Amino acid sequence: MHELISVITGFLDELREAGVPVSMVEAIDGMKAVETIDLGDKIALRETLRATLIKNIRHERAFDTAFDVYFSNVPGPAEADDPASADGGPSPAAGNEPFDPEIEFDLDGLIEALLEALAGMDGESLRRGARQAVEQLAGMEPGRPVGGTYYLYRTLRRLDLAQLEADLIEALMSEEDLSEFERRLLKEDVEARLEKLREEIQEEIRRRLVADRGREAVARTLRRPLVEDVDLMHATTSELAAMEAAIGPLTRKLASRLARRRRKRSGRLDFRRTVRRSLATGGVPADPQFRHPRPHRPEVWLLCDISGSMATFSRFTLQFTHAMSTQFSKLRSFAFVDTVDEVTEFFGPGIDFGSAISRITKEAEVVWLDGHSDYGNSLETFYSRYGGQLTSRTTVLISGDARNNYRPPREAVLGDIAKAARAVLWLNPEPRSYWDTGDSAMSHYAKHSTSVHEVRTLRQLEEFIENLTLPSTKTSQNV
Amino acid sequence: MEFDSPRAVTEALTATDYLPDERIAQVVFLADRLDKPVLVEGPAGVGKTELAKAVAAITGRSLIRLQCYEGLDEAKALYEWNYKKQLLRIQSEVDHDWDSISHDIFSEDFLLTRPLLEAIRSPDPVVLLIDEIDRVEVETEALLLEILSDFQVSIPELGTMYATTQPMVFLTSNNTRELSEALKRRCLFLHIDYPDVEREKEILTAKVPGLSDHLADQVAKVARSIRGLDLKKAPSVSETIDWARTLLALSVEDVDEDVLGDTLHVLLKYQTDIERAAKELTSGKQD
Predict the structure, then answer these.
(1) Which of A30, A401, B56, B176 could be disulfide-bonded to B127 (CB atoms 3.0-4.6 Å)?
(2) Quick one: angle between helices A237-264 and A311-323, nearest 10?
(3) Quick check: ipTM above 0.95?
């Protein structure tokens, strides 16, 4: 039990290191809960800790990774009876035991066995196969400070996943002539099964890494930022999907926070109504009346660089800003690459965001010359076309990295825009230290912007939008 | 304590045709052992509310349900003074002095209990379901904190009411907004996602008597396939059950492209979704 407590404490530390907020109360709950369960059961342990420690679906991935590392030696329910793993414990040799290393390794035989296990969905043999595959194919070298992705890749390559997939489809095909629809279902089924294999292999690799280098070290290598802290410019596809899912609840939380803030502000004294009300009390103004506070909602024009490098970031800016559109009196969107076009009409109530984005890339006329970002020309076109409609209530938001492909920045026009508008705020997804390196013309534009913000994560984007909706931001008062 | 082990939970729930996965069984078991509320989160139609009902059924407790909505307040969730009755009481005894009346009209006879107080005061243990908690405002959430952590309700005129029996509490949320940390901290967290093909197949077989194994398999696989698409509203478990019933009623034995094209509207509720799914799955052959 003592050993388990120290493992759980280490696990809690790792969760906190990874950014998951686990409070003291939750940690105590977790410990209490663990006392009620059968400690030999890995799934029970995992779900117990999950239910008590993780309170947000966005933190599940961090939890799963850390759990795999910290509790890799607790046998799963099916394994518990398996003598090979029960007495083997943490030593990396444990994985060897079912197989005699003297026998020459037979790759085809292994693939055959895996195929059979996959076709029959036999979890036990699948696990055994995965163990053998890692043992023979991963070529793991003790002591190397890696997270195991390379080993996973190497194992899967030797197993030839594409061939495995084709063979599996063949094996599961009930009849020769499948319609397009049946083929699709079958293919998805096969993909799900192969994913199981991947997971088994991954788990085995982690188990061995932990045995080799210890929990803390492996956990540190595997640590990934939480969804809200992922760098928008370098996010993987799965991270992007997770961010997209997170945007909805985030904006709603923000919206309710803003609404509450507004309610607190009471308006100025309404003299006329106070006097009229005072007639009821014989002319004594006992019941002062106030004007209803009129929420100040800024009018926002969003100007997004949608060239290749910036597409992802601008997409999030657009999505976040549009999700908050009720907080603004008016929201217009413009897209540019080397020239600019208005895209406001592509968004609107009931319109699917994804299709709006694809319409922008197809229909908006944002390319003039060669499709490389040209901030100078885009800003000039923007000013000459729409500049007349800018008012002192308009806040112009520019989302871009200011990488101008060494073209003239022509920043004077931004000065004109800033003069006509209430404020020009620039969002740059690059780290501050990269600004003005290479073809970045950030400081040229920064001179004429009201303020420039480094926005690299969803969290920063959320903070920025929150400040934007403040009744009167400090920055805009200077203008 | 109602259950000996998570396995006992699984068996009991399965007997009522609610098929839990390991996670669900474990959390229900913990909720019972630790006397903690469970916050159940997940997409619409994965059986969050059903879970509370099923737990009520297997424990033989009655279910008290508080449906949340925007604008829900104390008077609707906790308790309210029956002021009409109070007025009558005052009028009927004009000659009594105020002290005795005021003491009298703020007694339990004049209290209208609402779901939360009812759950606390019930002489028999109950299951309390607070449904769609994400619909109430953040401020209203705070109303629940006292009841969730200490199972008590404070009424200024009467004092604090303690739970005589320990209710099992389930809160559900569709995660349309983030709940406050204070609320989450007091709960066990259970995220229910769409079931995998195997489990969905079992659910279908349990809920739709007469469904062939082959058809259940196909329905579950089609559901997975459609959920993989980028849609406004993915088909929920209840919708796949409806679809399976429809197929059964139409005496379909094998789902092919035509059948799918004709019955997609049972699974999907938005025209754009139906069009997209038809395009993806039936290679645009729908007329």
Answers:
(1) B56
(2) 30
(3) no
